[in-house]
Amino acid sequence: MEIWINPACSKCRSALTVLDAEGADYTVRRYLEDVPSPEEIREVLERLGLEPWDITRTQEAAAKELGLKEWPKDAEHRDRWVEALAAHPKLIQRPIITADDGTAVVARSEEAVRDALSR
C-alpha cells in the first residue's frame, strides 16, 4: 500500500493517523517532491476508476493560470489533463492510497482510508 501525500495537508495527516492506528504497512510518497510521471498518473487513474479532471484541484493558483475550468473533459483532451497534473503536481487531489488489491482511493475521509485498508 502506498499513500501519496502533501505533508502540509491536514487530510493527509489524518489519513496517516488512521493508517498508523490500524498498524497498516504502507509507503509514503511525497508527490510534490517525488513527482509522478504521466504514466504513473494514468495507472493511478485506472486503479481509481476516475478521469484526470476528477482528481484535479481546480481552485489552485496553477489551475487558474492554466485556465483548467475551460478545458474540455473528454477522451480527446485526457492526455492534456494528465500532462498538466504531472507538470503541476500540486493540482493532484490528495491523499491517494493505492490498495493492496490493485485498486486505489482518494482518501479524504476516515471512511475512505478504512475502505482502502479493507481491500
Structure description:
With 119 residues, this protein is α+β, with helices and mostly antiparallel strands. The chain has a single domain, classed as Glutaredoxin (3-Layer(aba) Sandwich), CATH 3.40.30. It is built from five helices and four strands, in the order E-H-E-H-H-H-E-E-H. A four-stranded mixed β-sheet has the order 2-1-3-4, with helices on both faces. A hairpin with a 5-residue loop joins strand 3 and strand 4.
Strand order of the largest sheet: 2-1-3-4
Residue fraction in strands: 5-15%
What is the succession of H and E elements? Answer: EHEHHHEEH
Task: Give the structural class.
Answer: alpha+beta
Write a concise synopsis of the structure shown.
The chain is of the alpha+beta class and 119 residues long. The protein is 40% helix and 12% strand. It has a single domain, classed as Glutaredoxin, CATH 3.40.30.
Topology:
Blueprint: E1 2-5, H1 10-21, E2 27-30, H2 38-48, H3 61-66, H4 78-87, E3 96-98, E4 104-106, H5 110-118
Organism: Streptomyces roseoviridis
Protein name: Arsenate reductase family protein
Pfam families: ArsC
Sum up the structure in keywords.
Glutaredoxin, 119 residues, alpha+beta, four-stranded mixed beta sheet
